[in-house]
Design goal:
The chain has four helices and five strands; from the N terminus they run αβββαβααβ. By secondary structure, the chain is an alpha/beta fold.
Length: 151
C-alpha cells in the first residue's frame, strides 16, 4: 500500500504543491492513482475544489500538472492549500466519495436529482456533481452515505 501524503511543513504552499506534483509524477503509472477517497463539504466541494473553482481546475494530464497550490478565494479559514486537480482525481482507477452528517442533506438531494436527470443549473456548479457526472459511465465510483444524512 502506498499513501501519497501532501507534506507542507517548513515549505510555502506553492513549494508544497510543486513537490507533491513532482512526487506523484515520479510514482504513478500513466499519472493514475489506484484509489482516491474524498469527503464532501456542505457546499459540495471535494478536495479543495470549491464551486467557483471547478471550471478553473480542469486541465489535461498531458500538461504534467497533477497537483496545485490554491490561494484562498472562498469562505474557509485555510488561506492556502494544496489540492489535486479534478482531472487528476477523475483519472483514478477507483474513487470513493463520503457524505456524512445532516449538514450534507442538501448536497445529497442534489446528487439524487442528478440520478433522476433533474439536476438544476445551480447543481452543476458543485464539484461533487461534476465528479459524479463525469465518472458515472465508468466503473470504480462508490458513494458512501451515513444513515442519518437527511434526518
Amino acid at each position: 500500500t502506498n499513501i501519497h501524503q501532501m507534506l507542507s511543513v517548513g515549505q510555502s504552499c506553492a513549494q508544497s504543491g510543486a513537490n507533491y506534483n513532482h512526487q506523484l509524477l515520479g510514482l504513478l503509472t500513466n499519472n493514475t492513482l489506484d484509489y482516491t477517497l474524498l469527503g464532501v463539504g456542505r457546499d459540495g466541494h471535494v478536495a479543495s475544489i470549491f464551486p467557483q473553482d471547478a471550471v478553473q481546475t480542469e486541465i489535461t494530464i498531458g500538461e504534467q500538472m497533477l497537483a496545485v497550490s490554491v490561494k484562498d478565494n472562498y469562505y474557509i479559514k485555510i488561506k492556502e492549500r494544496v489540492t489535486l486537480y479534478l482531472s487528476t482525481i477523475l483519472q483514478s482507477r477507483n474513487i470513493g466519495v463520503i457524505l456524512t452528517g445532516t449538514n450534507k442533506c442538501d448536497v445529497f438531494k442534489r446528487i439524487q436529482r442528478l440520478d433522476k436527470q433533474t439536476a438544476t443549473e445551480e447543481d452543476w456548479h458543485l464539484p461533487v456533481i461534476q465528479l459524479i457526472h463525469k465518472r458515472k459511465t465508468n466503473n470504480g465510483l462508490k458513494i458512501y452515505i451515513d444513515k442519518c444524512i437527511c434526518k
